Amino acid sequence: MPPKRPSRKATRAQPASSRRRRNDAAADDDGANDAPIDDDINMDDDDDGDGDGESATESANDLRSVEESLKISMVVDTGLRKEQRQRRLETEFEGQVRLVEEQVENRGEERKREVAQWQSDVLARLLALSRRKSDLETQIFKETQELADAYLALKEEFEAVLQGREGDVNEAIDSLNKLEEAAPPKTSS
């Protein structure tokens, strides 16, 4: 959040005499802010005409005093409005910052939930694949064992057949040898 600007407090009102001097100097400069004052008009109805000049001066001074106090109050009001606007803008900004922070936090929480769900899904799939692998390994082991058992059984049968044939062949050779021995010798001519 940006640093707060120092507030511009309204300046304290100056004493009436210095205000008049400043007002008179300003009136001499441009004359645009001067209120037309008619010295001939008597503002005091109770006056019997003895002090026309004095009452006109008093009423002119009163008008200047009112005008000066209006200017001061306008300056003060302007400062107050600026300060109120500054506070309002700061409050709106802080509200927007809070809103954005909440949105960021909500999005972060949502992302965490999405990641947790994704991790959970991947873990479940990994566990399913691991179970399937284990089942396949068990099945392969059983089938390999059955194949080995079948091989051994077939081997024993084959060896028995070979031994039987070997015995038959040996008997045939022995009987041929005996026949050869029993037969008369051949003479060569």
How would you sum up this structure, described in words?
The chain is mainly α. Helix content is 77%, strand content 0%. Residues 1-11 have a biased composition (Basic residues). Residues 1-68 are annotated as: Disordered.
What's the short version?
With 189 residues, the protein is mainly alpha-helical.
- Average pLDDT level: 80
Order of helices and strands: HH
SS content category: mainly alpha
- Our estimate of the beta-strand percent is under 5%
Which stretches are low in confidence, meaning pLDDT under 50 for 5 or more residues running? 29-47
Largest sheet, in brief, is: none
**What is the radius of gyration?**
61 Å
* Number of H- or I-type helical stretches: 2
Helix content: over 70%
Morphology: rod-shaped
Distance between the termini: 134 Å
Q: Please count the beta strands (DSSP E, at least 2 residues each).
A: 0
What are the main properties of this structure?
77% helix, rod-shaped, 189 residues, mainly alpha
Topology summary:
Blueprint: H1 16-29, H2 52-182
Biased composition (Acidic residues): 26-55
Region (Disordered): 1-68
Biased composition (Basic residues): 1-11
